[in-house]
């Protein structure tokens, strides 16, 4: 509730006779010059000014923003709502349930722990592709999903009834970010405050990196860790520095042979190369008005891949047209137009806006591309893909000079249905149209269907070793596919709809055929996947697949026809037609004009209003779940999915003083670009891993293991899965991949599982550190990457640089993020991980200040020392408070308990 209005900005906006309380930006001098995204932040401060956390001086400082300056102004941003998916959402609700018990232990009331901002959770990360290639695949996969996840779903249903302002979208309805842009996003929020209806910009934080998809709709939002999202739900503002804003000018139009996917892969490469980590990117200029909303959303979705906090598009007529198409009410649309024009938030390309940095892309220069085989920013021009594959294969397989697998690596495979073929390096094992990045975009989805039709008419078929699938982010996609009449052609190539969820993009690709899996592993084949997703990190897509590529939906279909990455689409035929003529990709590539005509005839507003009218209801399975009752959750001690975590065990009303770190050992020494997938994988795991052994000991059969992601409500599984990615490389071991380290509690420091070693260190009372390289923690906003790190006993992570979300999450769990001195690294300092570490100067935080550096002494086994001053990456006073309290949740809980006294 606003208690201060230093600028007299509070006023009334009349929209067709309806009155809304608003906070006018033009009352603050300098506001008109700000970029769109900073105007949204300015309104946020005006509306929440209280004279303490948000002050007049902070508001003036933001209004006088210097584009050329480095970020140094801290603000407290209060998001309008919180968005969650179930992998990260389940632990959020687990933590809230645990906080209800903890606040009672501190003398407070359980009902105080309740979302203060609207919170919506979409169950989209749990469906796995067990069945594919048949019309009933979607039904069979959903059935298995409920069998695997019944406990989690019961728990979420309890949360929906126990907490106020918390809604759950049941399984099988869509992907969180597509549901967000098509239904949940308000663009302009309304909420009754003290009996008055208030209007303000829709903003959100989400427990998934790709929350930025909503930036395409003019909604400022980004991904945060689950820990930070919980605090936001509980009314805690997000502490942040006002960022630099990169202006990205779009000109020209996409050429006929290219797609929106090619545009976003090009932008990802450009921005990654430029360097936008921690910055806002904002698209501007005359060219923006010709960018369809679906393309804007695709670009916004990939913001984490190019590293920016947000990737904003302004609000204009294109925005209103999309809101109307997707079934928003005329009253809401008129409010959006009136409010944004009143506040200077309506796009006016004639106005010159100052940005911190400038970039430009002529869309007419975009060419068909793919990305891989490891990272989204590693773009490959399609015409060069065969040559590039032959270079890259050397990193994944034992090959001859030509880059093709040796004959000894070729494997004969006979499937149970009688089909026989040869497998070799580079064969496409998975071709999946998946992920909201592209399934939200009718232009590329319909292009895939038209290409499938053209291929079928030419007599082409998918190769028998390819696992094919379509997993839309919304049921509306199925509606327009059916209306277009193109589903039979997709199905003929094996592209049947398998579910409505993230599937392959997050590692839920499901198993390969057992005969194929055996051939791959017995012969150490480097097979590939091609998906229309946003992430292709190592070990993410499928444990049997070493090389992963991102591509547009039509190219996914094309690669299923080709069957291999060792393929030149310009010169190699996909097959022959009925007359024996060679058929090339150019012969079946969809005509963009025809695609747009089919879209125009196949998509209408009624599809959206009909599908979303029952979005929260769910099917008969959801309705049939037994729902626990009560304000606190009745934990089942036998559950292997949902368990009460230990974060608040022994917690007191006042925090213990922060201490220096002494006698620490290195748990892992890691290289560059270690992702949150490497730290906390979401996919499948095997029975010989610590997580697998835990489940077997608790009576869970191997077939019921599910994935790490689905078991995020059980800290016991997740601790054991931390640093357990099958492709992680701990440099303390030579030539070893996977979750292993050296255990120096044993003589000679033998190889051991990371979890087992960490438990031995805890028993010995030895703190731990992790050493890393550049871009540590890139990728998903995965709170368990920080939670698991903390619960293993890691006190500090020392790297060359951090990605934004993971650094914040580490602080949120009481882990100290440190960086090597500029230009230095673990290697340049001679560190190999066998040292004992002492970190002094940390205790200065007890004085209410944050030291810029702390002193690190690494003592080798022979007594020699490497010493350096590490940069403390606690960037704001708010983060310092969280660290002093042992984490953000402990801070919030103490604040709530103190108010209750």
UniProtKB/TrEMBL annotation:
Pathway connected to this protein: Carbohydrate metabolism; tricarboxylic acid cycle; isocitrate from oxaloacetate: step 2/2
Gene Ontology biological process: propionate metabolic process, methylcitrate cycle; tricarboxylic acid cycle
Segments forming domain Aconitase A/isopropylmalate dehydratase small subunit swivel: 693-822
PROSITE patterns associated with the record: ACONITASE_1 (PS00450), ACONITASE_2 (PS01244)
Gene3D superfamilies: 6.10.190.10, Aconitase, domain 3 (3.30.499.10), Aconitase, domain 4 (3.20.19.10)
InterPro entries named in the record: AcnA_IRP_Swivel, Acnase/IPM_dHydase_lsu_aba_1/3, Acoase/IPM_deHydtase_lsu_aba, Aconitase/3IPM_dehydase_swvl, Aconitase/IRP2, Aconitase_4Fe-4S_BS, Aconitase_4Fe-4S_dom, AconitaseA/IPMdHydase_ssu_swvl
The reaction(s) this protein catalyses: citrate = D-threo-isocitrate
Keyword Lipoprotein: no
Domain of life: Bacteria
Keywords for the protein's UniProt record, in alphabetical order: 4Fe-4S, Iron, Iron-sulfur, Lyase, Metal-binding, RNA-binding, Tricarboxylic acid cycle
Required cofactor names: [4Fe-4S] cluster
Enzyme type, top EC level: lyase
Protein name: Aconitate hydratase
